[in-house]
């Protein structure tokens, strides 16, 4: 399938569905990274999981309030 044939299908996805797919993809990689427990490093605690949840929820709201969502995601990712 070429990019020209794929583009109308991608544009036909409802905005809330696109937001949920982006948030699910980020949550998959972020949560799997936080779940890995290496012996030499500090283990993920409740604060880590809270930051994961806050950043993923901010991604869901990114279309309605992009600036606060970007600040929230950036802040939680830098901690």
3D architecture notes:
This protein has 79 residues and is an all-alpha fold. The protein has four helices and no strands. Helix 2 runs antiparallel to helix 3 (46-60) and helix 3 (46-60) runs antiparallel to helix 4.
Average of the residue pLDDT scores: 82
Strand content: under 5%
Shape: flat
Q: Report Rg.
A: 16 Å
Alpha-beta content class: mainly alpha
> How much helix is in the residues?
over 70%
Number of strands: 0
Keywords:
single chain, 73% helix, 79 residues, mainly alpha, 0% strand
Quick rundown:
The chain is built from 4 helices and no strands.
SSE topology:
Elements: H1 3-11, H2 15-35, H3 46-60, H4 66-78
Helix pairs in contact: 2-3, 3-4
């Amino acid at each position: 399938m070429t990019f020209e044939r794929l583009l109308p299908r991608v544009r036909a996805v409802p905005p809330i569905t696109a937001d949920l797919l982006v948030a699910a993809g980020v949550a998959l990689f972020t949560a799997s990274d936080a779940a890995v427990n290496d012996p030499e490093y500090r283990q993920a605690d409740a604060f880590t999981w809270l930051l994961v949840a806050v950043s993923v929820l901010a991604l869901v709201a990114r279309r309605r309030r992009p600036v606060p969502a970007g600040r929230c995601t950036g802040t939680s990712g830098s901690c």
